[in-house]
Specification:
Shape: globular
Distance between the termini: 58 Å
Largest sheet: 7 strands, mixed
CATH architecture of the largest domain: 3-Layer(aba) Sandwich
Bound molecules: pyridoxal-5'-phosphate
Structural class: alpha/beta
Radius of gyration: 22 Å
Strand order of the largest sheet: 1-7-6-5-4-2-3
Number of helices: 16
Order of helices and strands: HHHEHEHEHEHEEEHHHHHEHEHEEHEH
Helix content: 25-40%
Number of domains: 2
Strand content: 5-15%
Number of strands: 12
Length: 428
């Protein structure tokens, strides 16, 4: 399918897929729930093992069902290739490890999903990778934090849960001035922004969120823009021989797909972070309605944010769609008329009232997830961000009264009615 000829929703329904399965004629992509593939002959087997030929040999490296998902998400994000992962965390892990190792550094926005923050703050240093955190909007701080060991800048497109929206163009300019790539976690803004169009080199997703959208399926995916020059002298892992493949040089063998091929053939093969083909199939079903769902999530969220703003039990509301929000300008610049599905708000009183609100909801679910078709609420300080110290929480905007809402696609009047009754009970 020539993606340039087709519109956004057509790509979400068709990209990566043949008109019919070549073997059976099945119209939908079948679930190839298989671990291994018969080789035509010994020479073909040898070529597959040496990465001299395209084809499937073992599902820890590639799979026909997963390949359709990878091609589809690459098309959605305007990349040249993608690699599906078992979770969003493994997508982030492999994207960074493909670039940085012992002695290297990363510069990262400090407004991150809690799991990513923990990986960067606690786990990477144990492996000799230092992460320097900077304020998402402080462009000078990115510049100052970069040194000769820095191998990438890392940001989230709508930071979860503070909802900071970075200036993609300016941050990618900084990265490229220093000959390093920009990695963007686009989980919270898929379809709203295509970071690659604004200079991102690598995009990662938790496919567990909008891409699946059903609260059923864990997954992750890395997308390669194909635009970064890995031969600029800073990344020997792409230009020097890989002994595991008889001296293969990724940049020479795979050109603009060097990054994603190394992530697949080296890291995923060694570390086994592969997505199950069953999950790839599940996520593929959801991609068909991706924009429809995302748009409905965002439309509902804007309504709910406006409702909360006027509610007597609410002390503050953080939603980039509100005109007085500090991220509104960036949202207008980059998010194509949408503002995401996450709303942060403070309940009057604080911790006890917050707990009472959560205990009073009837339709909404108290769940640690986002971008599910169902509306979800959580109290981040005691759950998703509880690994942080109190000081770290405050620095990341996680105050004790803060409630995070992930607005679903139900009828918005039902979401609002449930919130209203629970808010009233909370401050009774
Ligand atoms: N990135 C963001 C923005 C997230 O919100 C999450 C999970 O909530 C992740 C990454 C991690 O994804 P997963 O839970 O699929 O590992």
């Amino acid at each position: 399918m020539n993606k340039k000829k087709y519109g956004e929703r057509t790509i979400q329904v068709h990209a990566g897929e043949e008109q019919a399965d070549p073997t059976t004629g099945a119209r939908a992509t079948p679930i190839y729930l298989t671990s291994s593939y018969a080789f035509e002959d010994t020479e073909t087997a040898q070529q597959l093992y040496a990465l001299e030929r395209e084809g499937h040999l073992y599902t820890r490296i590639s799979n026909p069902t997963t390949e359709v998902l990878e091609k589809r998400v690459a098309a959605i994000e305007n990349g040249v290739g993608a690699l599906a992962q078992s979770t969003g965390m493994s997508a982030i892990l492999l994207a960074v490890l493909n670039i940085a190792g012992k002695g290297d550094e990363i510069v990262s926005s400090n407004n991150l999903y809690g799991g990513t923050y923990t990986l960067f703050k606690n786990t990477f240093p144990n492996w000799g990778i230092k992460v320097n955190f900077v304020d998402t909007h402080d462009l000078e701080a990115y510049e100052e934090a970069i040194n000769e060991n820095t191998k990438a800048i890392y940001i989230e497109s709508i930071g979860n849960p503070q909802l900071n929206i970075p200036d993609f163009e300016k941050i990618s300019e900084i990265a490229h001035r220093h000959d390093i790539p920009l990695i963007v976690d686009n989980t919270c803004a898929i379809t709203m922004v295509k970071p690659i169009d604004y200079g991102a080199d690598i995009v990662v997703h938790s496919a567990t969120k909008f891409l699946s959208g059903t609260g059923t399926t864990m997954g992750g995916i890395i997308v390669d823009s194909g635009k970064f020059d890995w031969t600029n002298g800073k990344f020997p892992q792409f230009t020097e021989p890989d002994e595991a493949y008889h001296g293969l040089v990724y940049s020479e063998a795979f050109g603009d797909k060097a990054f994603i091929m190394k992530a697949r053939a080296h890291l995923m093969k060694d570390m086994g972070t592969v997505l199950s083909p069953m999950n790839a199939f599940m996520i593929l079903q959801s991609t068909e309605s991706l924009s429809l769902r995302v748009n409905q999530h965002c439309e509902n969220a804007l309504e709910v944010a406006k409702f909360l703003k006027d509610h007597p039990a609410v002390s503050w509301v953080n939603y980039p769609g509100l005109e007085d929000n500090e991220n509104h300008e960036m949202a207008e610049k980059y998010l194509n008329g949408n503002y995401g599905c996450i709303i942060g708000f403070g309940i009057k009183g604080g911790l006890e009232e917050g707990k009472k609100f959560i205990e009073s909801i009837e339709l909404l679910s108290h769940v640690a997830n986002i971008a599910d078709a169902k509306t979800l609420v959580i109290h981040p300080a005691s759950t998703t961000h509880s690994n942080m110290t109190y000081e770290e929480q405050i620095e990341s905007g996680i105050t004790p009264d803060f409630i995070r809402l992930s607005v679903g696609i139900e009828n918005v009047e039902d979401i609002i009615a449930d919130m209203d009754q629970a808010l009233k009970k909370a401050i009774e």
